[in-house]
Amino acid sequence: MKSVAETRVERSPSGLAFYGEIDHQSVPGLLQTMPEIPSTACELDISATRRIDSAGLAMLIDWGNRNLEGEQKIRIRGASRQTRQLIEILRLGAMFELLD
Q1: Three-class SS state of 31
Q2: Parallel, antiparallel, or unpaired: how do β-strands 43-52 and 8-12 relate?
Q3: Is residue 3's pLDDT more than 70?
Q4: Within the chain, what is the greatest distance between any pair of CA atoms?
Q5: Residue 70, class by beta-carbon neighbours within 10 Å (0-12 exposed, 13-18 middle, 19+ buried)?
Q6: Contact (CB, 8 A) for 45 and 14
Q7: Separation of alpha carbons 4 and 78, rounded Å
Q8: Which of 19, 33, 51, 100 is 20 to 30 A distant from 81 in Cα terms?
Q9: How high does pLDDT run on average in the chain?
Q10: 97, exposed or middle or buried, with CB in 10 Å at 0-12, 13-18, 19+?
Q11: Where are the alpha helices (DSSP H) in the chain?
Q12: How far is CA 58 from the centre of its chain?
């Protein structure tokens, strides 16, 4: 079982930073502890995550739907090769702006 210290989300200068795993087990806890940020600080740093599954991507999309305006994309920094492949397989490229 994952500890709270392993998987967490914190404010960062440009938005939110995620640590640990963003998956079906950690999403409920992350949703409860996700800090509010202004829509202008909309970069999500996932460079310190070990793994993201489809439930994790769904959580990021839900966050974007609630916090971003209009056609603004969800800006992701630090996506691993596996995460990029999952975004491609699920055809979610139009939802995300991958930074790096």
Answers
A1: helix
A2: unpaired
A3: no
A4: 38
A5: exposed
A6: yes
A7: 22
A8: 33
A9: 89
A10: middle
A11: 27-33, 54-67, 81-89
A12: 9
CA atoms within 13 A on the CB side of 51: 10
Helix (H, G, I), strand (E, B) or coil at 21: strand
d(CA 55, CA 39): 22
Task: Say how far residue 44 (Cα) sits from the centre of its chain.
Answer: 6
Tokens of 13: 């200068």
pLDDT in tens, 31-75: 998 888 876 768 999 999 999 999 999 999 998 888 888 788 899
**Which residues, other chains included, contact 55 with Cβ-Cβ below 8 Å and sequence gap of 6+?**
22, 23, 24, 27
Q: For residues 63 and 47, what is the distance between their CA atoms, to the nearest angstrom? A: 18
Residue 37, both tokens = 């940020």
**Tokens for 12?**
């960062």
Query: Mean pLDDT, to the nearest integer, of 77-82?
Result: 95
pLDDT score at 11:
92
Distance between CA atoms of residues 15 and 58, nearest Å = 18
